[in-house]
């Protein structure tokens, strides 16, 4: 049959309708479908790398002082412009504080990344070396344990998500009580401690990182014997630098004393610790310093005069351009100092350090029984390096030694993200903060659940008195 | 042929000679002669019909508008001159021999043809709500953008300034309010039949013949999926004159910042810093403030008188077979802030050829090249906060660095960068090549049945280039190492549309139907790279590999497709009752696998009362029509792949090297579907006094449901938000437009256009939550807006100020026990005895009560004057200046008002806080300002050279004109410009200001010549 010209458009219409559903299919090129991934070892590894990538986020460990040293007796804001920060220091924050919400958000982002990796790697069979599989699982569970450990200490009852969230029906979770969360953490870290190797590329978790962290978890829970067990297996595996100043040099980055550090590298992932800890616009860096964090004068004055650790807190410093010395109106910590030229800085952030292991060990041993030689040896290693007098078992009892270890932790580990947790763990928070003249309440032993989270997830209950 | 310009003497002589011949004849024949001109343009009118009423004797005017006619004085008494598009001229001859006849244009609006989706329609036959702005209305005033073309001239259309008044900045059009929260509220743009053109900044406004704005569902539903925010149809210039025309239009002028903020000078600043220290009991830091004199006026340093020029040449011709229009344009606008500006070159061709009686082809081609020099966004903020004691350069001519700038006030001063260095030495530019082209063919299969197919592409290639030289004091904490970036993008949208149309006509019935099928596919690819640390500034962004630090390059890929089927039926009975039905089925790739397709129907009916005898008996009423419509339209403007779960890359440093991690970034929503807007519209069109006065009123109610909402989901899921369908929002409004030819004298004419629009927005539902609170903060200081059920979207949500704490007030027992006299007093909204985030409340409305435009055209003989006034009433603006240049803590410069009226024990004001290093910025209603304004947007004064003078030349027309834009603004607002929207198009954050780019006042002189 000869096609008439007027039939052409009709034919065209009919033909065009047929292939339409395919026309509307979406096949993204720049992203990938979760179901298409975790097919081999390299993919599994990249999933785990993604969890590590969470750590350097500004609201994970990028500004960890905001949730640890600032709400303590060690630090105060370097200037008064930033309401969110000043309220963390003055305990005037409420559930609308954006720093608290950001920490909540980023930690759960890391947890979801870990959950995806754990779920998916668990299902991998045949396309991955079993040893690698367990190592990757152990890393993912170490990191999930770390995130949950921070979260449960900050917020108490929290939603406990152990599975990758893939659909909108799964997003609302109720809170679990702290004990349940701790069970998960212990399970994750125990697994990590069994499957992680002794040595890993810098920044990846080792067996010692897992055991140190698990020791810390047990210490937090007051389970002294298991804490000692974990910590003892680390003792001797790492060691202290000979001088306190050496801990903070670029040459010793990832050196023998560091057990687990958040990794930065200038120009790749810049650390903001150096600009945030240097006095604002003081001219001491090759950059306009930000000056977020200053040292509280009371803490500065608590050091013995010759304490090596005090040398890393300064009230003046030579200007970068050689035009003289900048004098500060407050003391500032120089642990993280570098010139940060053009904002480039590769200063790491120590999450777990051997000095912490020694002090935790001393504390746990003392709790089991006063007079442990190992406890005094441990703390004296720290004090010896700091050029301060050594402690003698004759001069203490269990209570005063306990206090001494706690105080040593403040001096040794200041600005490294321990103080608020230590104050809460040891029951000193309210008393210590009150002594600095701030108004603080019992409720402040945990932070408020972010209001935004309360608004979105109706299953949540706010912490008491917030 | 007689020439009217012969001297009277010769004419008299000739007349006498003629008379002496004619006198001998029995019947007195005589000749009349004259020229026919357009009353508005003073141009000669060719082919006008000159007719003697009694005898029907007829002649046509020649190309210069001249005519001669022999008449019989005894019988021929009345002359009629007529021409399509003009009012008929009738006069008694009364022995008058020489005529200059000026024809007034017909009051066009009613006779006009309106361009609607997939067709055109006579305005009288419209059943929907459509506003039209024709090129004729604005041809006499220069405009720099398509949006400026529309501003103040169409009811229901709001122009939103999304990036300040900078050249080439984002300007958005809002039609009948905000429908969507995350789906975008931009209308669909259709240029010469090509829907979905993304970027309009490359369109030359001088090419625009008309813009038709489809507002109600009856008009927009034919564009179904993309019609919910209204449709803007742009038609470019043609030539229907059937003769060769060449036009040259040039203007040039200068722009200046229309307003400066009144800041402290150096002496006052030094005194202010001393005063702040004194409040803390500190000694003065500056011993002799007067020694600093005036210091640096930083605004002066970064503002400049900026040039603007435009040249346009167009040639066109048409005959029965072929029509073309070719135009070229060059536009160059410097910005009033140094380092900003826009250059644009355009080439456009329209060509149509009738191959046979049944078949025609055509092409629309628009090519443009833009060069957009962008100002550094930090420069203005830096200029307003920096110490006036400092200067841009040191004595050796080097830029002052951040640390040096900070030294002009103690350690806590934080420099936001050297404004002049930022503006002058930073290269920040965007180049774009953009082509919109389409070809079409139309074939008449049988009489009245036409098939039309169109294929086209919207293609652009963009390149962004950035270089911040070494040592530039930047606006972060970084003094730069030399940073170079390049980003290039390719955008391609291809389209194929096929329609069949059929029309039928009888005495009583008239109808047409159009059906179509379309395919459209859009691709976007982008690649960007950044490197830092260059040996020398010479290389800029031209040799990125030389950077010491190579940042990871990035690339994206995006694709979306649309497939649609549509049908429209028009039917009218006896020219009285008009019906329109449309339906469109749209499929979009962006939605969930189960919900790709949506159906969007509409129906409307109009009743032309003026066809009824009882109305025709009222002489004053020349036209009267009632319209009602209802329909559903959709919105799909979300990103591609929004319904899918996605993994994307992040990176970490592990083992001292960069490693890539693949992580979940979004959650799946297979049910994602179309946002739907149901709209009811009722309107009236009326003409009075032979349509000299036209009146249009429309009432509408729009309800948008299944909002494409970027819903917040619990952070504990690992995600922040997901695009879902939840919630509803409504817009209800009234639009009035009046067009009157108030005075139509022979010499003096006055036409006025007035329109006013009222829109009331209301959030009806937000899914599981009652409200969405959005932080419009800059630098942590919370200033919030809320979308709350029962209120308009984007209400300001912060503390309610109750004045200032005064000495003697019982502060200790108040809800703010820590406050000092001079601090803000905040209302304890929930009465719990403390002020915290729970005391935030709705403090103001960013939406205007109404917006209006008022345009007046006057002409007297050859002079013409256009005045356009635009205004907005009742909207509030939150000027975030209170976090820095109105924040008297001594770390930034501040305004004179903030300093001089600051609270002190001796000045117990309730409107300004105290000074002090310890004060904290606190967002409250105190900083909310009235954003109402009345602006004399445009004044153009023109003069057409008389035809007499052009006679000896080839010129048809020569007009010179002078224009002032933004002549004056009446407003109480204290920022640069009340037409401000810091967060651009984000409907959740409306009416914010933070040192936004100022409006320019522009003086232009121009000439247009046509041959």
| Name of the CATH first level of the largest domain in chain A | Mainly Alpha
Helical content band of chain B? under 10%
Q: What is the fold-level CATH name, i.e. the topology of the domain at 108-243 in chain B?
A: Ferric Hydroxamate Uptake Protein, Chain A, domain 1
Given as residue ranges, the uncertain stretches of chain A (5+ residues, pLDDT < 50) are none
Beta-strand portion of chain A reads: 5-15%
Number of helical stretches of at least 4 residues of chain A? 18
Summarize, please:
The complex is a heterodimer of chains A (466) and B (1011). Chain A has 466 residues and is mainly α. Helix content of chain A is 46%, strand content 8%.
Break the fold down into its secondary structure elements and pairings:
The complex is a heterodimer of chains A (466) and B (1011).
Chain A (H helix, E strand, L loop, with lengths): L6 H12 L1 H4 L17 H15 L2 H5 L12 E3 L5 H8 L7 H26 L6 H26 L2 E2 L15 E2 L1 H18 L11 H15 L2 H9 L25 E5 L10 H5 L15 E3 L1 H6 L10 E6 L6 E9 L15 E5 H15 L4 H13 L12 H16 L5 H7 L3 H7 L15 H6 L10
Antiparallel strand pairs in A: 1-5, 2-3, 4-8, 6-7
Helix pairs in contact in A: 3-6, 3-7, 6-7, 7-8, 8-9, 9-10, 10-13, 13-14, 13-15
Chain B lengths: L7 H15 L6 E10 L10 E4 L5 E3 L5 E7 L5 E5 L6 E4 L5 E6 L4 H4 L1 E4 L2 E4 L7 E5 H4 L7 H5 L6 E5 L9 E5 L12 E4 L2 E2 L12 E7 L2 H4 L10 E6 L8 E13 L8 H14 L18 H5 L3 E13 L3 E13 L6 E14 L4 E15 L3 H9 L16 H5 L12 H7 L1 E20 L2 E20 L14 E23 L3 E24 L16 E2 L3 E20 L3 E12 L8 E12 L4 H4 L4 E15 L10 E9 L2 E10 L8 E14 L4 E13 L2 E5 L8 E5 L2 E17 L3 E18 L5 E5 L8 E5 L6 E4 L2 E4 L19 E3 L14 E4 L5 E11 L2 E11 L2 E4 L16 H5 L27 E3 L2 E12 L2 H4 L6 E15 L20 E2 L6 E11 L1
Parallel strand pairs in B: 1-7, 13-16, 47-51
Antiparallel strand pairs in B: 1-4, 2-3, 2-5, 5-6, 8-9, 10-15, 11-12, 13-14, 15-16, 17-18, 17-52, 18-19, 19-20, 20-21, 21-22, 22-23, 23-24, 24-25, 25-26, 25-27, 27-28, 28-29, 29-30, 30-33, 31-32, 33-34, 34-37, 35-36, 37-38, 38-45, 39-40, 40-41, 41-44, 42-43, 45-46, 46-49, 47-48, 49-50, 50-52
Helix pairs in contact in B: 8-10
